Amino acid sequence: MEGVFRNIDFNSESNLGQTKDRNRRLKNLIEDFANPKLDLRPSRIGNLDIIGNTYEYLINRFASDSGKKGGEFYTPPEVSELLAELLEPKSGERICDPAFGSGSLLIKLANKVPDHNFSIYGMESNGSTWALGKMNMFLHDIDNAKLEWCDTINNPRLIDNDSLMKFDVVVANPPFSLDKWGYDNAGSDRYNRFHRGIPPKSKGDYAFITHMVESMVKDKGRVGVIVPHGVLFRGSSEGKIRQKMIEENLLDAVVGLPQNLFFGTGIPAAILIFKSLRKTNDILFIDGSRDFDQGKNQNKLRKQDIQKIAQAYKEYETVDKYSYRATFDEIKENDFNLNIPRYVDTFEEEEEIDIQATQKDITELEKELSVVRSKMLAYLDELGLSLK
Questions:
Q1: Which residue in 223, 295, 215, 231 sits closest to 253, CA to CA?
Q2: What is the distance between the alpha carbons of residues 82 and 223, in angstroms, rounded to a whole number?
Q3: Sign (positive or negative) of CA dihedral 209, 287, 233, 331
């Protein structure tokens, strides 16, 4: 756990108050931790991870209260669960998140491995967030994770013999359209990650996507990455990178998600699934944007929504108004634009109006209105009143 508490300052007035208040709070803290009944070691009741789940809950609450900043280090648990369902990590596999944040996404995938035989790796550029993720792993009893504090794009530290380390599963929720991601150095990248093209200077989405694709093993690697919708259709250098990845038969599926799922942004996002060895050059499009539980401040995926998407991906077939299995030629005709509405038609036809029946209803209503008017005029005459 070396370095986890490096940012804690017990002399901080901004966090702990002035001297008298600070001393009182620290005294209470020491007494609480000296209590022999307090046990913070990883603990379970059956399959329930008590301390780990408590820490996870606190991270969730902190992220929800942190606005945009919360989205930088925490992926909603339902989205993490969906990625775990789609990528299906298996026994003995190496799992990596190159922007691991609080580590919650990695933990969801690790928990999906039936016999808990896995290796966890990650990289995170923010030191405080890195410490948060390290503690999260410890409290979930994952003590063999290799988590590096580094800049994934400019200075990756998961290296094997001067090459990028390779993984069976690579998963991430990288920062959306990151500005100043390292454009100036990308042309001379020592790992040759940008051989398909260099992403635009102000949008680093494809920098992370490219790193992840280059990090998966060549025979059974899978990548799952959360992206803003612009990644699906923007042109210029991004369009060229997207086209080359499709021509290399790497992209397996595009999954549209509901809006307002993520902390700090209401925009809808998508999941891209890449595979290193594919049996088809078709691509499956799934529109999961309309199935969710609407919350006051944030929407959530329900269990049935997650299972519906996972089942559609497993079956890999066209389902009316929900999914579409597009051929390579169709995608090429669309200039390699992956915008989901181009493939999944969700248009609902309006119910046909029966003109004759509607006219009959209008005639009947007019008759009733005429009778009511006659009665009202007679009533006014009795009272000696007039509408004129």
A1: 223
A2: 13
A3: positive
With H, G, I as helix, E, B as strand and everything else as coil, classify residue 332: helix
Give me the helices (H) in the chain, please.
13-16, 19-34, 50-65, 77-87, 104-112, 127-139, 183-186, 205-215, 230-233, 236-247, 303-315, 328-333, 355-382
Nearest by Cα to 204 from 99, 70, 67: 99
pTM of the full predicted structure?
A: 0.78
Is residue 14's pLDDT more than 60?
Answer: no
Token representation of residue 48: 């329930």
Q: Using 50, 70 and 90 to split pLDDT, how confident is the model at 357?
A: confident
Q: What is the CATH number of domain 53-342?
A: 3.40.50.150
Q: Which residues contact 330 (CB under 8 A, 6 or more apart)?
A: 343
pLDDT at position 51 is: 54
**Residue count (the chain):** 388
| 325 in Cβ contact with 348 (< 8 Å) | no
The three-state secondary structure class of 150 is coil
Stretch among 2-16, 56-70, 164-178, 321-335 having the lowest mean pLDDT: 56-70
Residue 273's closest CA among 334, 329, 332, 338?
A: 338
Phi, psi of 239 (to 5 degrees): -60, -40
User: Which of 277, 279, 282 lies closest to 329, judged by CA?
Assistant: 282
Average pLDDT over residues 41-47: 51
- Give the CA distances from residue 68 to residues 132, 263, 296, in Å, rounded to whole numbers and listed in that order: 17, 6, 17
Q: Are 156 and 214 in contact (CB under 8 A)?
A: no
Name the least confident of 64-68, 206-210, 288-292, 347-351.
Answer: 64-68
Domain spans of the chain, in order of start? 1-38, 53-342
Q: What is the DSSP letter of 169?
A: E
Sign of the CA dihedral with 174 first, then 183, 193, and 237 last:
positive
